[in-house]
Amino acid sequence: MEITQNKGLSGVTDAVGGPLTGDLIQSLSFDGQAVIYGNYSTEKFELHNYDILMKNIGIKAYLYRYFLTPPQQKDEKTLQEIIDATENNDFQVSIGGMHPLEDYKAAIHESLYRPEQGKRYFIFPK
Hints:
Elements: E1 9-14, H1 19-26, E2 28-36, H2 49-53, E3 58-61, H3 76-86, E4 95-100, H4 104-113, E5 119-123
Parallel strand pairs: 1-2, 2-3, 4-5
């Protein structure tokens, strides 16, 4: 909330899970959206119904479906567009920095205010 000047987040993408997921969802603004696609943590997160209801929060699971079933014919156009956009040697995803998890505030701040410097990555402890 400090980073957004108490406005809350518009969206959260979570690959870790655990108690921090609940904290992130509680920091969403009205109509905020959370996408959960990972399970790095084995711990559960908790929410109260009002954490969702009073802010009209949406929570969606994302499962990359091609892990389970092969692409279908109707997917060919979209997949080809992705291939075309990323196959050139000049296509690059800039790395703006590697951050330990406890440095999340700096990583989020840099992502919000200096996106041109590249994507931020978190370093997970072993």
